[in-house]
Design goal:
It comes from Tautonia sociabilis. Pfam families: TPR_16 (PF13432). InterPro entries: TPR-like_helical_dom_sf, TPR_rpt. With about 250 residues, the protein is mainly α. Among the domains are: about 20-115; about 180-253, Serine Threonine Protein Phosphatase 5, Tetratricopeptide repeat. It contains twelve helices and no strands. The chain has helices spanning about 5-45, 50-65, 80-85, 85-110, 120-135, 145-160, 160-175, 180-190, 195-210, 215-225, 230-245, 245-250. The radius of gyration is 21 Å and the shape is globular. The N and C termini lie far apart (about 65 Å).
Length: about 250
């Protein structure tokens, strides 16, 4: 038996353990990303969000994105934690990353109303547009949700490009929701605008299509609550507790 054989086996075992540890760390980063995103959804996805709560939501979005260095120069898909995920996990992360960019863009758009002068407003709107473009990059071609196109239309319209605004509004109108998540995103925009009944129509369809979509149930509860529909709100919140009890307790607090 070669003297090199035990050494080779030992090196192989060490490499295996390093890969296993790196894989576990990648799973942990994904879990912490999800926790940050959950906090952002609680803070940002309902109407009447005051500036303080909006800041909390923005901080949570930034924390989520920074876990994959998504605001840096390179692509977040090249970060170590992302490369070690399975293909299914990466697809899930990409959709969630797109939502995080989209939520942060909307928060920045709302921030613009608090800016002290026209120059500051324009800088904030341009930052929101940059985040919107980054959100698009997270989706496969043909899978970008209509809510992202609608947001872009608003932003470029404010910046004075009426032709582009019309183009993106048309794209949004021609983009049907493909998934329950797409419906949830559309409903979120409606809820933030105070259009709770319209949001509920989307959310009822979303929860029928995917009864496991926690955040659609959560937003249903908020919308029913704002409309004074106490029994329906309670039923929606009970669905949240059944689906994700730990998250529900944190959300309701």
């Amino acid at each position: 038996m070669s003297l090199c054989a035990p050494l080779s086996a030992g090196l192989g075992a060490a490499a295996y353990h390093r890969r296993a540890e790196a894989r576990q760390e990648a799973i942990g980063v994904l879990a912490r990303f999800e926790e940050d995103l959950d906090q952002a959804r609680v803070s940002l996805n309902s109407s009447g969000v005051d500036a303080g709560l909006r800041r909390e939501g923005e901080a949570a979005c930034l924390a989520a994105l920074e876990r994959y260095d998504a605001l840096g120069e390179g692509s977040w898909t090249d970060s170590g934690p992302a490369r070690l995920l399975t293909s299914s996990e990466r697809r899930h992360l990409a959709e969630a990353m797109g939502e995080a960019f989209w939520m942060l863009a909307r928060a920045r758009w709302l921030d613009a109303s608090d800016a002290p002068d026209r120059e500051s407003v324009e800088a904030t709107v341009r930052e929101a547009l940059r985040l919107n473009l980054l959100a698009e990059d997270c989706y496969d071609k043909g899978a970008v949700p209509a809510s992202l196109w609608s947001q872009r239309a608003e932003l470029v319209g404010w910046l004075g490009d009426d032709r582009e605004a019309r183009r993106w509004r048309k794209r949004a109108a021609e983009t049907p929701p493909r998934t329950a998540r797409d419906l949830y995103l559309l409903a979120t925009d409606l809820a933030v605008a105070g259009r709770f009944a319209d949001a509920l129509a989307k959310l009822e369809t979303a929860t029928r299509a995917n009864p496991q979509l926690y955040w659609a149930w959560f937003l249903r509860g908020i919308c029913h609550d704002r409309l004074g529909q106490d029994a329906e709100a309670l039923a929606s919140y009970q669905a949240c507790v059944a689906l994700r009890p730990e998250v529900a307790r944190a959300s309701f607090n």
